[in-house]
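Entry 14. Structure prediction run on the chain below.
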Amino acid sequence: MENGGLILLIFLAFLFAWVLNRVRKALRFGPVAYAGVMITFAIVMLALYTQTQR
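Output returned:
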């Protein structure tokens, strides 16, 4: 069942990217802001994932 969390994490990442893409079009974000949000999201998700593995 340990892979279930990783699959959920990947699904949430795709969902987040899809929502962020729609928000970016609505708010007219530049590519730098978009990349910054994605990097922040990746760091937070990796931190949460490593916390749950302990």
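The chain has one domain: 2-52.
Filed with the rest of this week's runs.
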